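note to self: dont lose this again. the chain is below, predicted strucutre after it. 331 aa total, dont forget to put it in the shared folder this time
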Amino acid sequence: MAENLQPIIVKKIKKAAHAGHHGGSWKVAYADFVTAMMAFFLLLWLLSSTSQETLSGVADYFENPSAINAAGGTSTSMIELGSNIDSSKGDGDQGRESDSFEYYSEAFEQMETDKLEALKAKIEDVIENTPSITEYNDQILIEITEEGLHIQIIDENNRPMFDRGSAELKSYAKKILREISPILNTIQNKMSISGHTDAKRYTHNDTYSNWELSSDRANAARRELVRAGTPSSKIARIEGLASRFLLKPDKPTDPANRRIDILMLKKKSEDSLYREKGVEPEPMTPEEQKLNNQKNKKVENKKNPVDTLELQEAIRSGTNRNTGAVVRFRE
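---
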């Protein structure tokens, strides 16, 4: 009976080894995908909220990244493309790059320079041909600076504009201001008036120093100009600077350091002055705005192959290192 028993055979089926766990590589790929989509939608948002001028500037960069002509010169960086877009204003305020940098076309800048040159010539002609003030010609300094037309009426040893320690104008100083006032009124530019003293200490009493004296003298000049017909609204700033900005630093007590400065401000300087005080600048006249909207000739011709090659060569040789304005996208 026992001989008929069959042995019990147990078969164990071994499963094939698994190829292994996939790990977290799929998560990395997914994260890359999500990041790319986010960047894509961000790009779409920027494109939809950016003006056509800024888009043109970006397109110009990719067409010729080695050199882009801008109002401020040549830029070799995408960050410094050169643009007249105001990052803090809407489309209606184009023409300014930012609150700290005013943009004006070459045509507008040239127009202002020509206007101030003509004004300078008129003042010099009046001084030369007006007997009552001709003898004071050497006390009147006139020059055109980056800020505007700079007129300085300086003291001489034997001919001071004010008595020692006084803010009362001498008669001949009043004559000078009365003669130039009508000429200054022929242009719309605002003016800034500054009073200066030499380095001599005015008094040992700190309640009234060269600061107060220079301020009072600047105000005395303002009053005389207003009496001569200058509108009060034309005067943007009155300031006393004591002896901080000497005309002759090597001779701090020289009489020429005692002077009155009248600065006919360029629009750029006027706007910067307003913005420094947190005030919105006065808008341009329609004629000025039309002129300022004219494109620079260099910008119009920047795709000329000959000009581009010459510009690239200038950049490589280091002879052209100017930069343009910074492009900023509006939010």
